[in-house]
Amino acid sequence: MEDECLELKSTEMDALMAIYGESEQFEYSSNNDNGLISGKLIIEIDSISVQELVNNSTAPNIEYLPPITMKFTLTALYPLQEPPSITIECSWLNDFAIEMIKTRLDEIWELEHGICVLHSFIDILTHDLHLIKGITVNLQKDAEAIVVYNRERRLRDFEAQSFDCAICMEEQSGRHCIELSCHHVFCRSCLSLYLGILIAEGSIAQLKCPDTQCRRLPEQPEIKADEMQQLLNEEQISRFQRLQEQRKIDSDGSKYAWCPRQGCGLGVECDKTIERLCECDCGYVFCKLCLRTWHGNNHCEIKNAKRIIELYIRAVRQNQDQTVRAKLEGQYGEATLKRMLAEYDRESASMDLIRKSTQKCPKCCLRIQKTYGCNHMQCSQCHTHFCYLCGTVVDKTNPMAHFNSARSQCRMRLFDGIEGSVGYDREQQLLLQQPLQEEQDEINLMIQLAFEDDNDS
């Protein structure tokens, strides 16, 4: 009987060797002294069985599960009288599931008693594992190993196929292609070139699947960071990360800021507990609003007062965006801005008075105020002769030609503004007397000297 059993076992081993060949999936050894044959089989689980198992679990998009290792020992009286000794090893099966599998294999042995059953065992583990009660995917036990194996198996199957690149339209081996998360396939060289151009141009918002089907979608799928790592060199990845950081900070200025320290320029996440406080990895602590050294609860120092007050005037008096007003008052203080606004109004009124009560020299632009005399003036700075009424340069050898010409708007107006003459404005003369006496004396002296020079000429 042992000889008959040995012959049956040898035939079974030859059949398995024909199926699996000399690979890591199947190996065995025999002991001629006691007739024992020991070995192991690494069994890949059928995709249908995997899907059924995964559907009953919380597993994320799993297409392949790590294989089951079935170790066996065949006694001298197998298969005619004694069953095989089976050990099941699998990273994602718990002890209860393994016991349920062994129970099912024992049932197969009872049904097929007297014949070789290893092939039937393999068939059960390959195709019908999901039919065994109590078998589930145990992600809590070895989730990382399952995900890694699933990725490796998908890659192995992918590389064994050929695909048409959606960019160059040529058929390429899967070894030279990449499949994006949206399942569109491109050859690596084409997609690397495409991404490299976009990154060089700084157009990272366009780093999305270039397939026409995806481009038609309202939200075009973006190319993921791990996919970028497979396609770009270190320099391109570094630039992409900088651009991505810049995009994040620029899109949400309330949470992030750029470090203003010279030579740094890192992106900084603002403190969530202290308003405006930012601390860079370089050690610089600064205010998010004014970018200067941290000044606590004190208001920011005003650097460009004119620009700030113009923004504040538009917000306060022209009813523009009130968020601007709130931001300015929060940064610089409401009392400070109102004081600046009052000073601005006083300065504006003074400038309006100067513009209305003076004339600009047409050559050197010096502002000149006439307190008395005719409208033929000579600049005390550049000695240009001009008309005080219209600011036109006049001929110093014949200044009266301007006031006598029929084409001149100042014809017959040489003495306009002098009390008693046509066009005299009493209120304007009173306004001219408002400046401080010291300033008025200086102005009068300058104009008097200019007037005397004019008479001498």
UniProtKB/TrEMBL annotation:
Keyword annotations of the record: Membrane, Metal-binding, Repeat, Transferase, Transmembrane, Transmembrane helix, Ubl conjugation pathway, Zinc, Zinc-finger
GO terms in the biological process aspect are:
protein ubiquitination
Pfam families in alphabetical order: IBR, IBR_1, RWD
Keyword Zinc-finger assigned to the entry: answer is yes
Q: Which PROSITE patterns match?
A: RWD, TRIAD, ZF_RING_1, ZF_RING_2
Q: Kindly give the CDD domains that the UniProt entry links to this protein.
A: Rcat_RBR_RNF14, RWD_RNF14
Gene Ontology terms: cellular component: cytoplasm; organelle membrane
Its annotated pathway reads:
Protein modification; protein ubiquitination
Which parts of the sequence belong to the RING-type domain?
161-414, 165-210
* Domain RWD, chain residue ranges per copy: 11-132
Main localization is membrane
Compartmental location: Membrane
Q: What is its EC number?
A: 2.3.2.31
Topology class, membrane: Single-pass membrane protein
Q: Which PANTHER family match?
A: RBR FAMILY RING FINGER AND IBR DOMAIN-CONTAINING
Family, per the entry?
Belongs to the RBR family. RNF14 subfamily.
User: What's the protein here called?
Assistant: RBR-type E3 ubiquitin transferase
